[in-house]
Write a structure and sequence with these properties.
Chain lengths: 274, 262
């Protein structure tokens, strides 16, 4: 007499991807479909983005993450209000550069993976674990990257609590193959990243004080200025657009969680300092 | 022999009796609404009994820890797959219970050669406002105490025996203040109600009395006696929480501060 299993047996290691697999979802083909769609749309000259600038800078209270709003296809501006920052959990933000369809799919998987882990295992995933999860997803995307489509090069910014006491902001950046690096002071990605890195290097090395000692309002000013600098040289990056009143997206990741720096606040800072 | 219909019915009846007997001494669970959402409270010895299932759904149970764990994981899996494949807003307690958990429990219960789940559960979903909160009680055989009805009363209870549940509800009705009660008030009332439940279950378990009356039960005294070896466990679904996830487990300090004035 066989004993029927009343329910499918799931792995209990808190890995959401293996649960998805049981239910017929495979990440790699899904990413491939997203990228194929992207190729198709590019052919028609429709919405798709490549060029962009996103950055993350550590400062006194945590990490500032910012991204411009422009989405481009080749030399065309497709959309001026794209959002390139995705909140992954209460203390983490993913900044994406690359093919949005793939990036958003990765973000969606990550968001649920972290929540799933926390709820099944009754503890939050460690920062190292989170960073590694993103790396794994980028590796799933490897075949596409090698074909030259569907490349995603994200930045992961998070605030790490250590034993419930004072924590620290952390910045990780990736190459398209999934290798992860921790940014000591800052990280930038996208077509405008060269200017950003140059300016930040200059500020950090020869500025008044290192970026890590900036306070929140100082770091916001610095980020807006550096984004404007990137926009000056890179057509695929937009700065502040006064005609349409479009601002970059700026978020502060600190002990209190993720805070969106609103448009009105940015408008004031632009008028005064940029 | 089980192939005969009569034998099957008998086997099911035996199984029900066995499970009910196992659950008799389980630690009750109290659900109350308070000013900013829903409170779930129980008193546990070691293993945790109150859990988060999804952004707006919480779970509490009494029964065998391994079965609680299995059912909890089933609920989490179903909710996350739905939330991932569709949208966070599409995860609803009603669907989770009606189409996922309840049929699975019924199947396990009626396949008499397989092991049944030995547990009773209460699940709560935080709505946009108090009118749309939803509570579902789900038993080992898949039957639902209450499904898809809007919350008429701002409370519910779960206990090992029907008698205990009745007494707890009676106590809550008698002591029911405003549904806009503060969290501290809610914690105190929930803890006293828990004491009524455990005392009733223990008295009726001893078989001394057919019907246990509330007379002579001092909930505060009973609670204090139990707290010598157990601790209060409480979870919240907070409407005002800024995250998408509304669940929070209260820490010991908060609970102790609230219960100090009992």
């Amino acid at each position: 007499m066989d004993h029927p299993a009343p329910l499918p047996q799931f792995l209990h290691d808190g890995d959401f991807l293996s649960v998805l697999k049981v239910h017929g979802y495979e990440v790699a083909p899904r990413l491939a479909a997203a990228a194929a769609k992207f190729e198709h749309e590019i052919g028609k000259g429709s919405i798709a983005t490549e060029g962009t600038t996103v950055l993350a800078i550590k400062f006194k209270d945590g990490v500032l993450v910012a991204g411009d709003r422009r989405a481009t296809t080749g030399n065309l501006v497709m959309y001026e209000r794209a959002e390139k920052l995705i909140n992954i959990d209460t203390h983490s933000v993913l900044a994406i550069a690359g093919v949005p369809a793939v990036a958003f799919e990765i973000a969606r998987v990550l968001e649920h993976s972290f929540k799933y882990y926390q709820r099944t295992q009754l503890q939050e995933m460690s920062t190292a674990g989170k960073v590694r999860s993103l790396s794994k997803l980028l590796k799933e995307n490897l075949p596409l990257t090698l074909q030259g489509v569907g490349m995603v090069v994200p930045i992961f910014a998070t605030y790490e609590h250590t034993n419930g006491r004072d924590g620290a902001g952390k910045v990780f950046f990736y190459d398209a193959l999934g290798a992860q690096f921790e940014g000591v002071d800052y990280a930038a990605s996208g077509s405008g990243s060269l200017s950003v890195r140059s300016v930040l290097h200059y500020l950090n090395t020869w500025g008044e004080k290192p970026l890590a000692r900036y306070n929140e309002s100082e770091i916001i000013v610095a980020a807006l200025r550096v984004l404007d600098t990137a926009a000056a040289a890179d057509t695929a990056t937009s700065g502040y657009n006064p005609k349409q009143n479009i601002f970059p997206i700026v978020r502060i990741v600190s002990r209190d969680g993720v805070r969106d720096v609103g448009d009105s606040e940015l408008a004031k800072i632009y008028r005064a300092n940029v | 022999m089980i192939e005969e219909p009569y034998r099957w019915v008998e086997a099911i009846a035996n199984r029900r009796e066995y499970i009910e007997d196992q659950l008799r001494r389980g630690s009750p669970v109290v659900l109350l609404n308070y000013a900013d959402g829903l409170l779930l409270l129980t008193v546990s010895r070691e293993t945790r009994k109150i859990f988060e299932i999804y952004d707006r759904i919480a779970f509490a149970a009494l029964g065998h820890p391994a079965d609680i764990e299995r059912m909890r994981l089933v609920a989490i899996d179903l909710a996350h797959i739905e939330g991932f494949n569709r949208a966070v807003a599409d995860v609803s307690l009603r669907r989770l219970v009606n189409f996922g958990m309840s049929p699975a429990l019924k199947t396990a219960f009626e396949q008499v050669y397989g092991p049944p789940f030995v547990l009773k559960m209460m699940l709560a979903e935080l709505g946009e406002d108090a009118e749309h909160d939803c509570i579902v009680k789900l038993d080992y055989d898949g039957s639902m105490g209450r499904s898809e009805i809007e919350m008429k009363e701002p409370f519910d209870v779960l206990a090992g025996t029907g008698e205990a549940q009745e007494q707890m509800l009676k106590y809550l009705v008698d002591n029911n203040g405003s549904p806009r009660r503060s969290l501290d008030d809610a914690l105190q009332l929930a803890a006293r109600t828990w004491a009524v439940g455990i005392e009733t279950a223990e008295r009726s378990g001893e078989g001394k009395e057919e019907h246990v009356s509330l007379e002579g039960i001092d909930p505060v005294k009973v609670l204090k006696e139990h707290l010598k070896v157990r601790h209060v466990e409480a979870g919240l679904l907070e409407r005002g929480r800024p995250d998408s996830s509304k669940f929070r487990l209260l820490d010991e300090k908060e609970i102790r501060a609230a219960l100090k004035e009992l």
